[in-house]
Every structure is written in structure tokens, then in C-alpha cells.
Amino acid sequence: MPGLTRGCVLSLLCVPWFVLRTHCFDIGLSTKCVSVPKEMGLCQDVGYSEMRLPNLMGHTTFGEVIPRSAEWEPLLRTGCHSQAATFLCSLFAPVCLATFIQPCRSMCVAVRDNCRHVLACHGQSWPDAFDCDRFPADEDTCLTSINAESAAYRKFFPKPTCQGCPATEEPGAHKRVLQTFCQNNFAVKVTLARRKGATGVSEYDVQGRVEMISPGSLFPFGTRTIIQQWLLINANCAHTMIQSSNRGAQYVLIGNVRDANIIVNKIYLWHKRDTQLTLAARKWKQHKCSKDA
């Protein structure tokens, strides 16, 4: 768990919950320690098993906590910030200690600055309930932020970003496909499928392993997670790609890594009988790109 700093804790936390209603929760009031429910997927790996109820969002029952916290699970799976789970769970499932421990303002700012771009990609803004000015400064008793991810980490595990959706194309002749490979940094073959998420909204998953046709600067051990995060961030792109059925379909995603960010530039639907795409993938290892490719 991130470190705690010493000082006083605010006695009253007023949290507007979206735009529907406002909860003002006196954290000096009586609360009880309860086990974090297994149905609360958001907070299963935060390092503790008991939480306080009512929580810092003003929820008094599991009937409120479980569905409201589930709304934030897709954001968490995008990997937008390494401390997003700690921040969210400190509000939805505060650890059972002698007093409430809020997130520090610095932690909120760090998570907000990294994750609000993902929310914006879905047409949402950082919610008022998570207004960072509401949380105590680092010199108070609160959960502090940790150092940002190192440049070396970002080099090995570049992050997907919100982007415009490239159209799913027919590949055409294998020479044209090889030229496309030359013009980009990576090409991977993936099987994608649609499923219904915890909140009833369709989500899109990478099934099985990812085939590295042209790995570029990507590494096999992290690429599946990166592609999964790209699907979650760019859910509108995924919806366009997989709108006909729930059955898995295979695609070749082609793109670049720029400033430690993944950008998908072209998508090919991989047909089993598409000999040209198969031929291009087989010839790629021996192919030499021309300087003007």
C-alpha cells in the first residue's frame, strides 16, 4: 500500500455523486468493518480484505457499492495509471483502520491527469465526485502517490492512446501488404470477440495468443495486454470492427509506437482463405523494404 503521511483528517467529506444527488458523509459517524465482497471486482487485489461501510462515497449497502464500483472496472483495465485501483478503492472500499484514510490530493491529480483522457475518449469528463481539491494535501494523513512510471518501463510497455478509428480494409495484393508493413513499426495478428461486461455494456476481448508478424518495438510478453487496453480505450473502434456477431474474428493490426504510445494505423480482416495476406506474412521475415517505402 502507498505510504501514509501524518497530520489531521477532514471530519466531513461532501461528495457529489455524478449530477443526480449529493452525499455529505461525516467520517466521524459510526461505521462497521465488513469483508470486501467477492462480487466487487474493482477491489480484489488491493492488499486488504476488510472495508468500512458506509464508504467515502456515501454508500451504505453492498446493493449500492457493488454496481457503482463496477462502473469503473473498464477504466481500471485500460491501465491508464498504476494507482487507479488504490485511488478508487480508497473511496468505494476504504480499508478498515482506526479512521478513514483518504487519498492525498497528489494521488488524485496523478490518476486524474492520466485517466481523464480515457474518459474523454468515451465522451465523459472527470467526475465532480473525484474533484482533487476535496482531498487532503500530502502533509495530512492520507494515501500518498508514488513516482511515475520510468522511461524504461514505458519503452518496454508502451501505452495505447485515444485515436481516430482506422477503417477495416481488404488487404489486396501481398506486395501492397508488405509495403504497408514497411511503412509501420509493428503488425500483429489477433483474435477478437465481443462479450457483455459487468454493467451490461458490450466489451471486446483478445482471445488466445497474439501472433507477432512484425514485432517492431513490441515484445510478445506484453503485447496481448496492450492490445486489450487499446480495445477498451477505443471501444468505438472495436464496436465497428466486431458488430456482426459474438464469435471470434481474426484481424491484423498495423501501427507505430510514438513517444511510448501505441497508434493503430491500419486494420485488415484476416480471412482463412485470404492467400495474399498469408503470403505477405510468410514473406515478411525475408523482405527488404525500399528506402522510399
TrEMBL record:
InterPro entries: Frizzled/SFRP, Frizzled_dom, Frizzled_dom_sf, Netrin_domain
Domain (FZ) ranges: 28-145
Record Pfam families: Fz
Disulfide-linked positions: C43-C89, C108-C132
Taxonomic superkingdom: Eukaryota
Subcellular localization(s) per the UniProt record: Secreted
Cellular compartments per GO CC: extracellular space
Signal peptide (from-to): 1-24
Gene Ontology BP, a term: canonical Wnt signaling pathway
Entry keyword set: Developmental protein, Differentiation, Disulfide bond, Secreted, Signal, Wnt signaling pathway
Domain NTR: from-to ranges: 165-289
A Gene Ontology molecular function term of the record: Wnt-protein binding
UniProt family annotation: Belongs to the secreted frizzled-related protein (sFRP) family.
PANTHER family tied to this protein: FRIZZLED, SECRETED FRIZZLED-RELATED PROTEIN 2
Protein name according to UniProt: FZ domain-containing protein
The organism of origin for this protein: Scyliorhinus torazame
